[in-house]
Every structure is written in C-alpha cells, then in structure tokens.
Design goal:
41% of the residues lie in helices and 22% in strands. Helix 2 packs parallel to helix 3 and helix 6 crosses helix 8. It folds into 2 domains: 120 residues, Response regulator (Rossmann fold), CATH 3.40.50.2300; 93 residues, Orthogonal Bundle (Arc Repressor Mutant, subunit A). The strands form 3 sheets. The protein has a 5-stranded parallel beta sheet with strand order 2-1-3-4-5, with helices on both faces. A 4-stranded antiparallel beta sheet has the order 6-7-8-9, with helices on one face. The protein is an alpha/beta fold. Strand 7 and strand 8 form a beta hairpin. The mean pLDDT is 84.
Length: 217
C-alpha cells in the first residue's frame, strides 16, 4: 500500500506518516496542494489522506484534480469542519471518505486500509514466472510448491519484478514502488534486501542484476 498524506500542519503530517509507517504502510508527505499535485503526477497512490483546508491550492482543488485525472487513488478527506453540510460538500467533490478533526488515529488507519482494499482487485491476480507463484491477495509466494516466508519489502520487490514480465526494472523504480520517500539513499537497503530475497528463493538463481540499470527476473 502506498499513501500520500497532504497536510499543511507539518507536525500533524509527520505524526500521521510515522504512525502509518509503523504499520508497514509506505507513506509520502506533501505540505501543500501544489506539491501534492506534482507527486500525484509521478506516483500511483492507493490512498490520499487530504486535508481540505490547505493554503494556496485548496484541498478541494486537489480533490477535483484527482477525480478529473482518474488516478484511481482513493481519497480520505480531513477537515476541522464537522458540520454535516461540510461533509456532504467534500463527498460531493469526489472524496471517498471523510474524517473530521480531531480524530482517533486508530480510526484513520482503519479507514485508510478499508479504502486501499477497494483498489486491491485490480492487483489481485496471481503472478507466475520462472517456477514462482506470487499471490498478492493472500500474500503468499511458492517456488515449485515450496512456500517461502518473505518480509514485506522482499515481497514487494519480487512482485514488481514478476509484474515486469522479464523486462528490467530500474533501481529507482524498485525504490519508488517498494519503499517511500523515507528511503535513505546510500544505506544499501535495496541491495541488502535483494540479497536476502535471492537467498530465500534458492537455486538456481532467478533474479539477474543488470549493471548500472537494475534487476530482472
């Protein structure tokens, strides 16, 4: 799951992001509407947690952009306004759900996960390649009927390689899709995770390194 949090109150935005990351959800943060629109042009998010009362480019305009571009992202709109007519207006713009501030964080997480599940069917088809079978819905991987135990990052990397159908996936794309902007460049996290994944997949090796580009299955 990939989530974009759009909130101009930086402390709140960062707190929401930290809480979601602790629950193994990849999160990017935008502190204004213009930044959010730019990010939405480059990344496919499952859910956008959108503060309605943004300065400059209003949250309503970001919502309209999402609906107009048909990004497929589900929208959870946040606002300090709790009146029914305010909620009706927000939903009328195309938001999928509405959560007034202040809110219980557990409820926000539950709503994010519920919205993300609505996008899941388009990605739920089992993938098969090179003797591997990956089931996104059940989060299982088998190799020649041997079930493998993978971490979330290992599972995400393998899924991206299998979706590529033998084409090379760049290092940058793997980082973008399997991590989030919290990824620390220079830590070697991708290389280490890939090495562990290869070891778990066993012999013969099925993941090939394309020097200077990325990896392919």
């Amino acid at each position: 799951m990939r989530v974009l949090v759009v909130e101009d109150e930086e402390e709140m935005a960062d707190a929401i992001a930290r809480g979601l990351r602790r629950r193994a959800i990849a999160v990017d943060v935008a502190y204004d509407g213009a930044d959010a629109v730019e990010r939405l042009g480059h990344v496919d998010y499952d859910v956008v947690v959108l503060d309605r009362d943004l300065p400059a480019l209003h949250g309503d305009d970001v919502c309209r952009h999402l609906v107009r571009e048909r990004t497929g992202s589900r929208i959870l709109m946040l606002t300090a306004a709790s009146r029914v007519d305010e909620r009706v207006t927000g939903l009328g713009l195309g938001a999928d759900d509405y959560l007034p501030k202040p809110f219980a964080f557990a409820e926000l997480v539950a709503r994010v996960r519920t919205l993300a599940r609505r996008t899941a069917p388009v990605r739920a088809t089992a993938l098969e390649r090179a003797g591997l079978r990956l089931d996104p819905a059940g989060r299982t991987v088998t190799r020649e009927d041997r079930e493998l135990t993978l971490t979330r990052k290992e599972f995400a990397l393998l899924a991206e390689l299998m979706r590529a159908g033998g084409e090379t996936v760049s290092t940058r794309d793997l980082i973008t899709r399997a991590w989030d902007e919290y990824y620390e460049a220079g830590t070697g996290a991708l290389r280490v995770t890939m090495a562990t994944l290869r070891r778990k997949l066993g012999a013969p090796a099925v993941i090939e390194t394309v020097p200077g580009v990325g990896y392919r299955l």
